[in-house]
Amino acid sequence: MRVDRIRLLIQFLSFILMIYGGIVLINLGRGLPALTCVYSKYSAGLCFLYPLQRFAGLPFFLLLGGYGILLLKYMGMFILWVIVLNTAWCGWVCPIGFLQDLLSKLRAYMNVDLSRFSWLTRDRYKSVKYILLVLLILLPIGIGNSFFGLPKLTDDLAVPFCQICPAKPLLPMFDGNFSHIFIDFSSGTKIVLSTLSMIILALFFTASFLKRRFFCSYCPMSALLSLFKKTSLLSLKKDGRKCTQCGNCSRVCPMEIREIADERERTDIVTQDCMLCMRCIEVCPEDNALRATFAGMTIFPSTAKGFLKRQGAFEKV
Amino acid sequence: MKNFIVSLILVEMLFIGAVDTAEAATMLWVERLSREEMMAMFTKKTGESKYSDASGKEEKSSKKVSGKSFTSGMVEMFYLYSGSFPDKKRNNTYLQNTHFWLEDPDGSIKGLNLRKKGGPYMVVAPNKNGGWYQLTAYNDYGVENGIRFHLFSQNSFLNHSDTVRRDEPEQIKRAGFYEGRPIMEIVHLVEDMQQQYVIRSGDELRVKVFLKGETVKGAHLTLITEKNWQKQIKTDEKGDGRFTMIKETFSEGKIDKSRVEKYLLIAVHEVDGPGNHNGRAYEKQRYIATLPLMVYPSSLDWESKSTGYLVAMFGIGIISGAAAIRRKRRRKDEGR
Questions:
Q1: Is there a single domain that holds both residue A125 and residue A268?
Q2: Structural domain boundaries, residue B70
Q3: Are residues A73 and A204 in the same domain?
Q4: Residue A258 belongs to a domain with what CATH number?
Q5: What distance in Å separates residue A282's CA from the closest CA in chain B?
Q6: Chain B residues closer than 8 Å to A179 by CB
Q7: Per-state percent for chain A, helix, strand, coil, to nearest 5
Q8: Cα A127 to Cα A138: distance, rounded to the nearest angstrom
Q9: Alpha carbon distance A82, A99 (integer Å)
């Protein structure tokens, strides 16, 4: 069975778990490395970005007390999840990733051409997610604390990323809640943020339809995960000596990562955008040129035989 | 003639109203301090602030009494008032005999001490576990005009954390309790847990009144707002009562989403039956329970869903159009 089909099945099951798991009282905590929205009624766990923003918005004297211990607890859970699964959270679990993959499948079914970014465009905008990550921490800090005698930022900027994240209007729709699609006229800041949210939602649908995993290139959760990728047990390794640079790997990569094909020296090739979907391993025609490892043990290597089998060629060539 | 008619109306109101001036003085309610009020109390740098418990015995500075708990962020604080809502009286002497009980999310109930810091009577409720807590105040007011008064007030609050720690339940007799529950209780019925956390104007408030674990038919329910608007109903056969939260404050210009209106729900029920309390005879017992409510503005005041859908649809249209044009140009360039 092909890995991408197994991945789609696991994504579907994860989606059901993340959106409806709360109905059967499943609670995976508040440190999940995936965009499982707090606004979903039956969510089985919370995206770590929400408590991160909430706690960052507390005054320092509260954060240094009991609330700080709570934040450390959630952070500890988050790091633990990342150590186990690395960025596979993006590729195999995240509900927003799953929705994007479904939109891609729909595009393919409708025979609409795939859009790709040029390497230049991709490189130019790769820092956007880090900027978003920094802003979603700094803005709440400015709400809860005053610096150099300056006034605190308005409370309307609370949980800034959640206010524009496409998960907020989208995921609650799956439990019948369509109330998060609105423009908030209570203040100028809210008008801007809610309008931005609607624009990002529109961009999410359109761009994710035309380009695979469009939103993942700008997701601050992906940026946060990439900070811990070197400590993870799950990894993607490359043996540059066996690579013939056929380019299959970067061609099928949903994130259009060229380093998989170009890199000849490093063995650990999990880049900032990689979501460990393992499509590259599937399409690699060389034995053990690419392999997925868990705690140092190979769990899925590239094989010439496997490659040919998936292409529908005869087993014995 | 005019004065006579006015007097007549006032006398009628005294008989008809579930809360008349005599009862108003014997009503009590607990109000939760907001975070800002708590922070203002503990960041005040006017020297050591003293605390005393209800018996007048002074304790050390408030920082020691509740600073440890406060800096851990795991306390809620409540003021105790009596009087005629929304007019508050803080210092009625009978208040010092009020018993406080805090029910943990795991169902265990423990007693809390009443404190006085020069201002209103206060109670500090520790809450280390995640979940809903219920605070119950009970005051055995005594006998007045042949009626024995039992005063209750409740307040509930939510600790958002996931911590769970089970303490051994206290094996003591709790004043004001019957078989583990307050003798008189107003239970807020919700379909959506979010509604228990936040009540908004326009929402329906459904409550059930219990007396000694049984629902009460015909209990007088009165809802009073900050501006003294009142509505009075009686509970039905199932002990249910329903109100629709009104809106009293209309902002002109900037909308204040955090503007909370304080309402008070009062349940009054009388039970006939003679008795004797502390040497004073009574013919019936009157149970008065209060449930303070914080009513927030409805999001309909500032949210426009139709505009949101329009912006989203428009956005999809524009972005799709731009993408289509760009693709067409690219194909044209590649064709060349």
A1: no
A2: 2-302
A3: yes
A4: 3.30.70
A5: 30
A6: 305
A7: 55, 5, 40
A8: 17
A9: 22
Range of A302's domain?
234-310
A173 contacts: CB under 8 Å, gap ≥ 6: none
Cα angle A27, A29, A32 (rounded to 5 degrees) comes to 115
Same-domain pairing of B219 and B335 = no
Per-residue pLDDT in tens (0 to 9) along chain A, 317 residues? 688 889 999 999 999 999 999 999 999 988 999 999 989 989 999 999 999 999 999 888 888 877 888 899 999 999 999 999 989 999 999 999 999 999 999 999 999 989 888 878 888 888 999 999 999 999 999 998 888 888 889 888 999 999 999 999 999 999 999 989 999 998 899 999 999 999 999 999 999 999 999 999 999 999 999 888 888 999 999 998 998 888 889 888 999 888 888 888 888 888 888 999 999 999 999 999 999 999 989 999 998 888 888 777 554 44
In a domain, residue A244? The reply is yes
Contact A54, A31 (CB under 8 A): no
Co-location of B159 and B250 in the same domain: yes
Shared domain check, B313 and B199:
no
A30 touches chain B (CB under 8 A): yes
The label of the residue with tokens 């500090």 reads B124
Contacts of A181 in chain B (CB under 8 A): 305, 308-309, 312
- Interchain pair A199, B311: CB under 8 A: yes
Does A302 share its domain with A155? no
Would you say residue A315 lies in a domain? Answer: no
B257/A186 touch (CB, cutoff 8 Å), yes or no: yes
Q: How far apart are CA A105 and CA A101, in angstroms?
A: 6
B21 close to A (CB below 8 A): no
A-to-B residue pairs, Cβ atoms closer than 8 angstroms: 81
